[in-house]
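U., I forgot to send this yesterday:
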Amino acid sequence: MKNIKNKLIALGVSALMVVAYSPVVSSAKTTGTSSYDAVTQATSGSGSDSSKDDEKDATLTVNAVTTSDKKITGTGLKGAKVKAYVKGDKIGSEKVESDGSYTIKIDKQKKGTVITVKMSKDGYKTQTKKITVTDSYDGSTGASKDDEKEATLTVNPVTKSDKKITGTGLKGAKVKAYVKGDKIGSEKVKSDGSYTIKIDKQKKGTVIIVKMSKDGYKTQTKEIKVTDSYDGSTGASK
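Result:
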């Protein structure tokens, strides 16, 4: 009986040792997910969001504003509030659309007026941009139209037999012709940049002053003296 009892005790100790030294099976492995993956997911969260201040769509942009504009446009952070100020007074505000653009309705502003635009949203740093109102601009580039070639007035030679003044200028501008202060004709510049002013025949030596004007642009002036005749192909006097 003593021998049997001793054998049973020995078997019990062995069983305990087997249990003590057997590897623990990870619950994560039973689900097909490693313990490393589980920790990674717990610490990283569901996504890989970086700081919102580093996002490109958080950048405020403001397009050029002219004396004829009744709105301020640009891009910014979706859902952010964009406000415009002049000398501390708010002149308009709007939210950024889902496509990242915004349009703030404003009254027309004078040339040289400084507009401060601010964009704000909870969790983001407020961004500020300043822009100065200009006379006019090329909508495709934002450059001042006064610097564009299309704003230059040209006047072709006029002879004593001509009944018109021709040339080129700014589309839509008004071109007027004067002799000794009296207007002898006027016309608008066509969409192709050309103009034709109907006039009565003028004497040789008559000085004609041609002026081109349009809102938001500097008035330009050219003087031309009536000649006997000219070679139409070159503009040179015969």
